[in-house]
């Protein structure tokens, strides 16, 4: 019995040693990688610096901009915009201009022929442009058409003298074709040939009328002093002063207005000839219609 137990113990130890050898071999053959240490977290200042650095690197490079020239905004490409520039060009010229001069000023001489024809058509038919067609080999000419064809002091006086009525003329309309009109107007006013009204804000001439210097005469200083000594009543007492002399304001006609009567609503009349009902109870019901008010 003891021999049997001894044999079992020896076989157990042998198996245990074999198994231990296998596990030791596997551990030595396979290399275990060293544990990875986590990277230290950056401090707040380092994190902000790194994020700023990343943002700076992500920004694209700015395009090359030539600051000596205006940006290409498309201004002036529209046909009517070019017409406005052309009229302003003609306004500043004292002599008629050819179409080639206008195209050169607008820098559109290299555009397609259809664009040039459309531009020519609009400018030649514009109400602010005088158009002279070409004839006998002479090119077509364009000139600015102001509201009044007045460009000198003599033409201004002649225009006002030719009017059938004593109508004035706006200085703004004069300056449309005569930019230096105000200087000549001031001289004519000093000579007594024009009557001028001016703006209160800047004292610029606003309207002009024809004046006759022969009608002007000097008034004695004595008479002027007597005139200025006459005192007018105060505005509050002016109405009473005028009424004391028999003058009544226009709003007092002396006719008393009748008071307006309030409109009364018409009374509603009872409907006559109504339909009679309850005929079968004629002997039972009584008629009280005579008691109605």
Describe the structure.
The longest helix has 28 residues, at 2-29. Mean pLDDT is 78; it is low at 26-30 and 67-76. The chain is mainly alpha-helical. The relative contact order is 0.04. β2 (129-132) and β3 form a beta hairpin. The chain contains ten helices and six strands, in the order αααβααββαβααββαα. It has helices at 2-29, 44-58, 79-91, 99-106, 113-124, 153-161, 171-177, 181-190, 221-229, 235-244; strands at residues 97-98, 129-132, 141-144, 169-170, 194-198, 205-210. It is 41% helix and 8% strand.
Question: What's the quick description here?
Answer:
This protein is mainly alpha-helical and 293 residues long.
Query: Which range does the strand content fall in?
Result: 5-15%
Mean pLDDT value: 78
- So how many helices? 10
Q: Could you name the ranges where pLDDT drops below 50 across 5 or more consecutive residues?
A: 26-30, 67-76
Question: Strands of the biggest beta sheet: in what spatial order?
Answer: 1-3-2
Sheet with most strands: 3 strands, antiparallel
Helix content: 40-55%
Please tell me what the overall shape is.
flat
């Amino acid at each position: 019995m003891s021999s049997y137990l001894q044999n079992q113990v020896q076989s157990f130890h042998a198996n245990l040693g074999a198994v231990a050898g296998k596990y030791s071999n596997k551990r030595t053959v396979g290399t275990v990688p060293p544990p990875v240490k986590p990277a230290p977290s950056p401090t707040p200042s380092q994190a902000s610096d790194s994020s700023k650095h990343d943002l700076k690197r992500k920004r694209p490079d700015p395009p090359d901009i030539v600051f000596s020239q205006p940006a290409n905004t498309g201004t002036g490409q529209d046909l009517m915009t070019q017409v406005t520039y052309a009229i302003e060009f003609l306004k500043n010229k004292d002599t008629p201009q050819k179409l080639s001069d206008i195209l050169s000023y607008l820098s559109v001489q290299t555009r397609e022929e259809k664009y040039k024809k459309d531009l020519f058509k609009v400018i030649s038919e514009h109400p602010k442009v005088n158009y002279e067609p070409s004839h006998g080999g002479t090119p077509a000419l364009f000139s600015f058409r102001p509201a009044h064809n007045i460009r000198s002091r003599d033409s201004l006086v002649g225009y006002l003298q030719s009017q059938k009525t004593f109508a004035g003329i706006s200085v703004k309309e004069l300056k449309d074709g005569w930019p230096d009109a105000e200087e000549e107007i001031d001289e004519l006013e000093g000579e007594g040939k024009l009557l001028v009204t001016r703006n209160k804000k800047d004292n610029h001439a606003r309207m002009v009328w024809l004046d006759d210097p022969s009608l002007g005469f000097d008034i004695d200083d004595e008479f002027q002093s007597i005139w200025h000594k006459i005192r007018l009543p105060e505005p509050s007492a002016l109405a009473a002063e005028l009424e004391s002399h028999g003058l009544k304001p226009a709003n007092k006609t002396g006719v008393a207005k009748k008071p307006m009567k309030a409109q009364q609503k018409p009374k509603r009349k009872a409907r006559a000839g109504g339909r009679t009902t309850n005929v079968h109870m004629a002997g039972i019901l009584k008629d009280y219609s005579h008691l109605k008010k």
